[in-house]
Design a protein that fits this description.
The protein is mostly helical and 134 residues long. It has one domain. The chain is built from 5 helices and no strands. The longest helix has 24 residues. The relative contact order is 0.14.
Amino acid sequence: MGLDIPSNYRLIGATKLLAVLVVIGLIQHIETLMHALRYDLLGMVPVIVTLLVLISGVVACVGLFKGEKWGFIPLYFYIPAVTLFLQFSLIPFIPNVFPAKYHDIAIMVINGLVLLYSVLLLLRRMETNYIQEY
């Protein structure tokens, strides 16, 4: 009956996997983030947005590495902000498989799937195994 529900350790491991994805994304694009923080060029994302994205990514990493549920809150800001404002992929190198004109679509699909996975993971972590029968 409860065989399809992963154990608590597997859920925490999956949460830490999300944290690793965020860390890889931050490390991969740290040069671009630092460049955006140094210069306020016309056409670049405003510095305050870049700073908020960077802070939310770091806070999400800390919360998710600890296995805490509050780590999902900054993650839910980080994923759409990285997708829409900075156009970074959370799973690196996959958009490079597609032709250059489809990179934006690939990034949106990849980050959307990661966001959906994180929502489902949080829902799994919040559900209880108690089923009341009347």
